[in-house]
Amino acid sequence: MTMMTIPPRPALLDTPEQDMLIGGRRVPALSGKRFETRNPATGALLATVAEGGAEDVDRAVKAARAAFEGPWRRMKPVERQRILLRLADLVEAHYEELAMLDTLDLGAPYSRTIMGKARAGALLRYYAGQATLITGDTIDNSAPGDVLSHTLKEPIGVVAAINPWNGPIGMSVWKAAPVLASGCTLVMKPAEQTPLSALRFGDLCLEAGVPEGVINIVTGLGDAGAALSSHPDVDKIAFTGSTGVGQKILHAAAGSMKRVTVELGGKSPNIVFADADLDKAVPAAAMAVFANSGQICSAGTRLFVQSSIHDDFMARLAAFTQGIRVGDPLDPETQIGPVVSAVQMDKILAFIEGAHSEGARPVTGGRRMSGAGFDAGYFIEPTIFSHVGDEMTIAREEIFGPVLSAFAFDTVEEVLARANATDFGLGSGVWTRDLATAHRMARGIRAGSVWVNCYQMLDPGVPFGGYKMSGFGRESGPHHIEDYLETKAVWIKLD
Ligand code: NAP
Ligand code: MG
């Protein structure tokens, strides 16, 4: 591993009471309420954060509406582009601090959070390009007489982004970039477990020249998210989180007919054929689940291994997994930190207990870690079960923790059917050297991403999203910006 320097404690934490960002100003909640955010590796209090309620959401939506009606949406595309490019520079310049905030707030190792720097810069620059690529069409029509028809693209208005906790700064950037490119305005609610980097990001937006009120950050609990999703003056919701909350948001959004896109949970298959390059497939299969302590929506949690290599592969996978370094997120050698909270830890441990009682075969891991450096945090051993039945709970439900379920299979047809026998459809992996197998699997899997001989690749130019209960809408890619635009048809009679 390359040497890396752990940066100092972020300056933001010198202000132990963190307020929301509304209309360009940091303000406390109208109720005066605050909630705590803690470091899951140590339990230490990091800050108390303004607990936004419905009345704060209303203030933020009003600020976003006022900014939308102001000069912002009529700004030249090249000016919005310039702001996005400045923001890209600023986010990169301050990324050590942003990554450190996420490491402290979420528990992800600094060696991981700092890796988000390249992607954050690339996302903002990609959407900076998109700002100058918005086009309507001139469309020939067959109406009688001499009539022109064309379309105008207009920003949809006030967008609400509601975010999960598992990749905080990356998610803030991903949600804000299309808003800024399209000329919309934003009210963003970060998850209660990880509000800090979003607030720092909001400050950087102002520094980059984003006009006041264009980006608002309302910190708070689930009820702030609920207030946003039912607010009559929000035009669109971009939600990333659990399938259950996604369903609630769809209901709440129906009242005022908001546009909604939902990026939800997953139970993604990762499929290893006997002809695969196993030296690559073994570590990748482990890290497809264990990276970020398993708290990744598209984690490859259902590992299918072809029968002829199954036992050998599982032995190698167990050995690799036992060598993964779990521990202090601030140690540059650490690969995996704690899970985000006590609640999450208990949920994961209950799934593990259930797997034992349902008869899955434990291969490695399975316990909460204890001893010096572990007792105050929420550390769980990277855990593998083999001989998992397709109907067992750990084969079907998203665990969102470091737990892998392994299955043996024989044929392409069989594994396709079993891989698709899930409510979800977010990610998937295929390991083979055979071109025909790779293409057959890529066509046959019902999921938003198929990674062949790799896992978890993301790029600003390539769409990401779900099939089935993993949601709908695609973030990134050339068409994402359409979700932020209205299409208006204009007819002009010339005779
Ligand atoms: P979550 O419980 O669904 O929470 C997500 C966000 O929704 C949080 O900000 C939460 O606020 C808020 N919220 C809670 N109740 C709400 C309500 N009734 N109305 C509106 N908003 C509400 O998800 P999470 O536990 O933070 O994140 C883990 C989940 O996210 C997993 O299922 C994972 O698969 C999914 N995820 C999906 C993707 C993807 O791209 N598909 C990416 C990352 C994560 P609080 O923080 O206060 O609860
Ligand atoms: Mg926290």
UniProtKB/TrEMBL annotation:
Pfam families listed in its UniProt record: Aldedh
Presence of keyword rRNA processing: no
One GO MF term: oxidoreductase activity, acting on the aldehyde or oxo group of donors, NAD or NADP as acceptor
PROSITE patterns reported in the protein's UniProt record: ALDEHYDE_DEHYDR_CYS (PS00070), ALDEHYDE_DEHYDR_GLU (PS00687)
Keyword tags: Oxidoreductase
Keyword Oxidoreductase: yes
Domain Aldehyde dehydrogenase, residue spans: 33-490
InterPro entries xref list: Ald_DH/histidinol_DH, Ald_DH_C, Ald_DH_CS_CYS, Ald_DH_CS_GLU, Ald_DH_N, Aldehyde_DH_dom
Active site: 263
Classification via SUPFAM superfamilies: ALDH-like
Listed PANTHER family: ALDEHYDE DEHYDROGENASE-RELATED (PTHR11699)
Family classification: Belongs to the aldehyde dehydrogenase family.
Protein name (Swiss-Prot/TrEMBL): Aldehyde dehydrogenase domain-containing protein
Organism: Sphingomonas sanxanigenens DSM 19645 = NX02
